[in-house]
Design goal:
Belongs to the FGGY kinase family. By secondary structure, the chain is an alpha+beta fold. It is built from 17 helices and 23 strands. A seven-stranded mixed beta sheet has the order 17-18-16-15-21-22-23. It has a six-stranded mixed beta sheet with strand order 3-2-1-5-14-13. Strands 4-7 form a two-stranded antiparallel ribbon. Strand 2 and strand 3 form a beta hairpin.
Length: 513
């Protein structure tokens, strides 16, 4: 039986899986690790951590009973958004950690760009804005703050490009990863922007000259690796791409109008379309499928599931202790929270625990509970957190309304949030859309495997995918939806009202350190 391998290098773990020609998962394995945070707002990782995890996951999958490594016809790598990319020297040896997507150290560079660059022109060329989320600002930080590293750097490689090099010996970058860098990628022409590179002072020769579609082979598996893993020598290594787009593909997003919400530690809501508008405050890049024509546009909340975990860990010790005896803390909180009306009896939560990405783009934004009284208990706050993250989802979805594409009339949700029936109902009521989830695990590694399967002629992604079973989880309740419309209006007023206070608190905190 012919098979392929999909790999996803995530922020906190790497996962590999083996798929058959119908997209069914035959084996899977994951390995965890940590993000390095040596200073406030910094988030970096050394690529050897990823490579060791990739090799470990591959070995575990290929040693699974019933899996024949000689049946594997190709593999593909998805990865987290690698921000700056990995600075490597001429021998492709890492010189400095990768400044990943959640790193916020480049705020000075953001301010410089806002003062010196025509932001309308930057948006017209790249389809994106300016924020320390984007890789081009992190590259500028490296040049300014680590000139010795910058001088030695031959390439700045996204995580999947670096791993693809170790697998195949070939240097290339896929268009989704290039576009997600923002600032220096011409989204319409699908190439690097000479104009923006020169304006921002970023050396073009530090970027891979070979840009490829995500479903394109970048090379073939090296003989040494094939031998050590038991794989056939020379099988194709498919370019892959950014994990958010890969997970969207895995959830069945293959044409304009398809849209998916991925709610795990962070939240990404993404749609497929054919044009980008930077003024909407969303992020755009070529999609991992049909990337020469179609664009993946998404918005994201930095702390979605992380907000829920933070709340439970910080305030629900009693529930966690009791959960040792029976179930989890979430199982104790959900029944009473389910009985509450929309709005949790007068509570709103802003989920900006690490600043926020789209559509507000403010690294100094902070979280808040509004409306607290002595009446409120733990389950009130728990529901308010779920609702606050869902309002952030709707905030991003509404930012897309000016796009020239009609969204599907239902919303697919994947990720850890799908385990909560209460949260699925809240999402249906807040967005006024029926919510569907998959019975199976739908993640970026599956998207990578599907791309590999198409590249190896095992399946055709132009046809409806049959790799999973969609289940209707919730339909909107009109009474609740009307109440949430009112609350969403208040939610949207909170950030601009509180922004001056947030910034002042942030400034005072920074000065006191």
């Amino acid at each position: 039986m012919e098979t392929v391998i999909g790999i996803d290098i995530g922020t906190q773990s790497t996962k590999a899986l083996v798929l058959d020609g119908n997209g069914r998962i035959l084996a899977e394995h994951s390995r965890g690790y940590r993000v390095d945070t040596p200073h406030p707002l910094w988030a970096e990782q050394w690529p050897d951590v990823w490579w060791e995890a990739v090799l470990g996951c591959l070995s575990a999958c290929l040693s699974t009973p019933g899996i024949n490594p000689r049946d594997v016809k190709g593999l593909c790598v998805s990865s987290l958004y690698g921000g700056s990319g990995i600075p490597v020297d001429a021998d492709i040896r890492p010189l400095y950690p990768c400044l990943i997507w959640m790193d916020r150290r480049a705020e000075a560079q953001v301010q410089w760009v806002k003062e010196h660059i025509n932001l309308t022109r930057l948006g017209d060329i790249t389809g994106n804005g300016v924020d320390s989320y984007y890789g081009f600002t992190k590259m500028m930080w490296l040049k300014a703050e680590r000139p010795d590293v910058w001088e030695q750097t031959r390439y700045l490689l996204p995580p999947n490009s670096y791993v693809n090099y170790l697998l195949s010996g070939e240097i290339a970058i896929d268009h989704s990863s290039a576009g997600n860098i923002g600032g220096i990628y011409d989204l319409e022409r699908r190439t690097w922007s000479t104009e923006m590179l020169e304006a921002l002072g970023i050396d073009r020769d530090k970027l891979p000259s070979r840009l490829v579609n995500s479903a394109t082979p970048v090379g073939r598996l090296l003989p040494s690796l094939a031998s050590s893993l038991g794989l056939c020598e020379g099988i194709p290594v498919i370019a892959g791409g950014v994990d958010a787009a890969m997970a969207t593909l895995a959830a069945g997003a293959t044409r304009p109008g398809n849209h998916v919400a991925m709610i795990g530690t962070s939240m990404c809501w993404g749609m497929i379309n054919r044009r980008a508008d930077a003024s909407l405050g969303l992020i755009s890049m070529p999609h991992v499928l049909n990337g020469d024509q179609e664009i993946y546009t998404f918005g994201g909340a930095l702390t979605a599931g992380a907000s829920v975990s933070w709340y439970v860990d910080t305030f629900c010790g009693e529930d966690k202790a009791a959960a040792v005896e029976s179930g989890s803390a979430f199982e104790r909180l959900e029944p009473p929270a389910r009985e509450l009306p929309p709005g949790a009896n007068g509570l709103l939560f802003l989920p900006y625990l690490m600043g926020e990405r789209s559509p507000v783009w403010d690294a100094q934004a902070s979280a808040a509970f509004i409306g607290l009284s002595l009446f409120h208990q733990r389950h009130h706050l728990y529901r308010a957190v779920l609702e606050g993250v869902t309002f952030a989802l709707r905030h991003n979805m509404e930012a897309s309304t000016q796009q020239e594409v009609t969204l599907d009339d239902h919303l697919i949700v994947v990720g850890g949030a799908a385990q909560s029936d209460l949260w699925m109902q809240i999402i249906a009521d807040v967005t006024r859309m029926p919510v569907y989830t998959y019975r199976e695990s739908v993640e970026a590694a599956l998207g990578a495997g599907l791309l590999a399967a198409q590249a190896c002629d095992l399946l055709d992604l132009a046809k409806p995918l049959q790799h999973g079973n969609l289940v209707e989880r919730a339909i909107p309740c009109e009474t609740a939806a009307c109440r949430y419309d009112e609350l969403f209006t208040l939610y949207c007023q909170l950030y601009p009202t509180l922004k001056p206070v947030m910034h002042q608190l942030n400034t005072n905190h920074t000065l006191s350190e």
